[in-house]
């Protein structure tokens, strides 16, 4: 016990043996007309590492396997999901709630850009408003018969992702990293956050891991040697996939054609998620 103990664990940050955790359930219920079997959060330590790409590709991969998938784009200040799927129409509502927009292959999507009149308008909102909007995507949107919902989380481990994890009953998270960032620190932060929130980490995905030269077929580690395996071992986690830098993938995102990407990099993750669904 700290020598300055004031007997109030809720206002103290000491990690002492006497600490009494207060278990408060802040979970929000989804819309009463919604049916969502599994919810997977995709997180990253910082922006631009490919979190939205991994979210999109996972939804596409599981959709190809016959599951009804959905994406809740919780990245309110940097929404990139509608563009990757080439969605230009806006979300519609009824007296009961708001409906997600369906992609060409039937994936249900909700994103701030499907509501804003002009999707180039910046979202200049403070944290609580942003977190409130994400909560509404969960409580006010009618998500029908969803087998797997993927949440593209806001980057980092700050206020907004914390509120989202407290409000939405997430079944597991996948951490996306890239070799050039401070992976060790970022994974440690994500692991701590998941522990605090009591959410299982399904594993790590290393994006932009290597480049496969089309001329000689060799793999080159453009951003230097990867340390993802050691880091995963340290935290008793699994490396679920390593994605190459592939200009066809970024071109597909830019043209709104991510549903038609070719590659099976995420199939092993999809099979792992499939086993979760059976439980
Ligand atoms: N493996 C890859 N190969 C080629 N381009 C990639 C790859 N991964 C991501 N990109 C491109 O990098 C850009 C950033 O990716 P993405 O939007 O998925 O990152 P993010 O982590 O979600 O970023 P933010 O948090 O800012 O939304 C996109 O243009 C995407 O197409």
UniProtKB/TrEMBL annotation:
Oligomer status and interactors: Homodimer.
Entries under PANTHER family matching the protein: IRON-SULFUR PROTEIN NUBPL (PTHR42961:SF2)
Gene3D superfamilies (alphabetical): P-loop containing nucleotide triphosphate hydrolases
Top-level taxon in the UniProt lineage: Bacteria
Short name of any one Pfam family annotated for the protein: ParA
An annotated Gene Ontology molecular function: 4 iron, 4 sulfur cluster binding
Family, as annotated: Belongs to the Mrp/NBP35 ATP-binding proteins family.
Signal peptide (residue range): none
Binding site for ATP: 45-52
Descriptive protein name: Iron-sulfur cluster carrier protein
Function: Binds and transfers iron-sulfur (Fe-S) clusters to target apoproteins. Can hydrolyze ATP.
Organism: Tissierella pigra
One biological process term in Gene Ontology: iron-sulfur cluster assembly
CDD domains: Mrp_NBP35
Matching InterPro entries: Mrp/NBP35_ATP-bd (IPR019591), NUBPL-like (IPR044304), P-loop_NTPase (IPR027417), YlxH/NBP35 (IPR033756)
Species classification: Bacteria, Bacillati, Bacillota, Tissierellia, Tissierellales
Keyword set, alphabetical order: ATP-binding, Hydrolase, Iron, Iron-sulfur, Metal-binding, Nucleotide-binding
